[in-house]
Amino acid sequence: MPEVLPRYGSATLADVLPALLHAIGAPLDDRPPAFGLPRAGAAVLLLVDGLGHELLHAHAADAPVLAGLADAGPLTVGFPSTTPISLTSLGTGLPPGAHGTLGLRFRVDGELLDALGWSSGRRDLRERLVPERVQPEPTVLERAAAAGVAVRSVSPLEFRTSGLTRSGLRGGEYRGVAALGDLAVEILAGVEGPGPRLVYGYHADLDKVGHLYGPGSPAWRWQLRQVDALLAMLLEALPAGTLLAVTGDHGMVTVDRTVDADTTPALSDGVALLGGDPRARHVYAEPGAAADALAAWQAVLGDDAAVVSREEAVARGWFGPVTDRVLDRVGDVVAALHGTAAVVRSEAEPFLSTLPGQHGSFTTAEQLVPLLVHPAA
């Protein structure tokens, strides 16, 4: 399965919101956008979780409206190719090494932080690891709102005060929704009115179905058809002069072989914390054990993964330029899985370990997402 490194600084997910602001005449700085988009008075960005470029084109018959839009991509999403990293890159306009959200689970001040729930086990970490301090860089939404753009985020009700929203997507007005119907209503309401307007909408269900049943499964295809129907209705109802863009935060693969880190002693010897997700692991070693952990992980995974030291992962540019502030969040050992392999944890992550659909690594199926635009440039 082909692989691609993230193209940081050139047509990645981090470049989308700045390009949209440029299109509505409200650029954040004097730099030209990474890609040209048609000028408009208002812009809508709909992010469909799990909408990969290759998956969309493989199932274009199930999504004729989406597939018929002009594609200004494909974009790369960054590493790991997982929702918290991608959404924070989107929201901040920065690569992972600058914003510091580096995994589904990653170490912050000695804690293994689950970035989706902002928790460790059942413990809510929003007070101990304050999201605005874990990720202190101003977001694109904050900067746009401060510059006079009417900014609205439309996302599930339960995410309004989540750590991920507070860290990477804070800024502007938040409108919580429960289903596709109110998602559409709130998006359409957000583009009404004078002055430049930017609406960010998020839909999660395609990713959920892909995890549960596998990308391209019958259930996944039916869900894709629902997303396509939503797009058809939005295109019909959006007022003239509105730019609509659709993208994803990653694609997905169906895993067909796994190694269980919780039952393979060589993968746990000398390991203090094991973060990441099944397709991209951060291995935090006990003091003095990093070299042995690196050798063990390389030996066990062999050709199924690129297993490198922290220093090599940074030197290869996997996370983009890494600031000193977040360097120790990178694992002493980083494993990026090849093909359709995965490193699961049957004891620590029992549900996640059973899911056929996974993402996080460098395959083009995971890294590439579309940037679908209406009207076309």
UniProtKB/TrEMBL annotation:
Protein name: AlkP superfamily pyrophosphatase or phosphodiesterase
Organism lineage string: Bacteria, Bacillati, Actinomycetota, Actinomycetes, Pseudonocardiales
Bilayer-spanning residue ranges: none
GO molecular function, one term: hydrolase activity
InterPro entries: Alkaline_phosphatase_core_sf, Phosphodiest/P_Trfase
Superkingdom per UniProt: Bacteria
